[in-house]
């Protein structure tokens, strides 16, 4: 990593313009660099992060897939006084570019503004419900589901093989960090639902059987009870009323 002076004397560097004034070794193959608020009209400086592509020999090897390596460098002092402070391994993909900002500029929500919030549109979702409901329209089944510690409503859903099923799941919680999850093994379904959020999961039920669904996040002492069943009946057998019990034998 090299530090240069620029040709414009308004920066008042003690060295001559266009001079290499300092270097620090990084490991290895720099992809991008980021400085504190460096993309603004009022950069803060002080620190630089080198987003490196390789990390060979920097960390304990845990297998054939090596981490990427991000390195924190102190650039607060002038001249040839840059100092490497920290190496941080980053797994599962190479970060491409980053920005650094002061944390006091972040104005975050602890929970979404109201129950049924859609983070993509930043408005309340039209699919949000405060009470569970199943609506059948031809070959499509809309499941309007609620989640609250520690229960899904409805907890039993019956459909027929080949039907399209759309889960609209609303987290009714208004408590900080009361996040719920939703998963259906066998159908590659997994969702994280933050307090007040509504998410939609859409798939075609191609395989008959009884599929448990459950919360992915530890949410309370009764977390393990936050589960239900999706019954996919073989095509042509129809569906029972929602109040009918789901068979206890699991065929997945």
Describe this structure in words.
With 252 residues, this protein is an all-beta fold. β9 (133-137) and β10 (140-148) form a beta hairpin. Mean pLDDT is 91; it is low at 246-252. It contains no helices and 18 strands. It is 0% helix and 39% strand. Strands 9, 10, 11, 13 and 16 form a 5-stranded mixed beta sheet that branches. The chain folds into 2 domains: 2-105, no CATH class; 117-233, Cupredoxins -  blue copper proteins (Immunoglobulin-like). The protein is elongated and about 85 Å long.
How would you describe this structure in keywords?
252 residues; mainly beta; five-stranded mixed beta sheet; 0% helix; 39% strand; elongated
Percent strand:
35-45%
Instruction: Examine the coordinates and then state which fold CATH places here, giving the name of the CATH topology of the largest domain.
Output: Immunoglobulin-like
Mean pLDDT: 91
- Largest sheet properties: 5 strands, mixed
The CATH level-2 architecture of the largest domain is identified as: Sandwich
Shape by Cα distribution: elongated
Which range best describes the helical content: under 10%, 10-25%, 25-40%, 40-55%, 55-70% or over 70%? under 10%
Low-confidence runs: 246-252
Number of strands: 18
Structural class: mainly beta
The top-level CATH class of the largest domain is Mainly Beta
What's the Cα radius of gyration?
27 Å
Please, how many domains? 2
Distance between the termini: 55 Å
For the record, what is the CATH homologous superfamily label of the largest domain? Cupredoxins -  blue copper proteins
Count helical runs: 0
Could you spell the SSE succession in H and E letters?
EEEEEEEEEEEEEEEEEE
């Amino acid at each position: 990593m090299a530090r240069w002076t620029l040709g414009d004397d308004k920066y008042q560097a003690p060295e001559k313009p266009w001079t290499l004034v300092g270097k620090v070794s990084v490991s290895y193959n720099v992809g991008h660099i980021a400085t504190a608020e460096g993309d603004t009209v009022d950069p803060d400086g002080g620190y630089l992060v080198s987003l490196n592509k390789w990390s060979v020999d920097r960390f304990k090897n845990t297998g054939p897939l090596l981490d990427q390596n991000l390195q924190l460098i102190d650039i607060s002092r002038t001249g040839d006084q840059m100092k490497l402070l920290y190496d941080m391994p980053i797994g599962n993909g190479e970060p491409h570019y980053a920005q650094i900002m002061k944390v006091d500029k972040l104005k975050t929500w602890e929970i979404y503004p109201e129950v049924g919030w859609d983070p993509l549109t930043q408005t309340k979702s039209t699919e949000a419900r405060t009470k569970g409901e199943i609506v059948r329209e031809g070959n499509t089944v809309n499941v309007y589901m609620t989640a609250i510690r520690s229960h899904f409503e409805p907890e039993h859903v019956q459909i027929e093989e080949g039907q399209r099923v759309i889960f609209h799941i609303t987290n009714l919680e208004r408590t900080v960090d009361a996040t719920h999850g939703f998963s259906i093994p066998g159908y590659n379904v997994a969702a994280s639902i933050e307090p007040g959020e509504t998410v939609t999961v859409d798939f075609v039920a191609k395989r008959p059987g009884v599929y448990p669904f459950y919360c992915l996040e530890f949410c309370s002492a009764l977390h393990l009870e936050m589960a239900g069943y999706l019954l996919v009946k073989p095509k042509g057998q129809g569906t029972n009323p929602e109040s009918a019990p789901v068979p206890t034998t699991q065929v997945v």
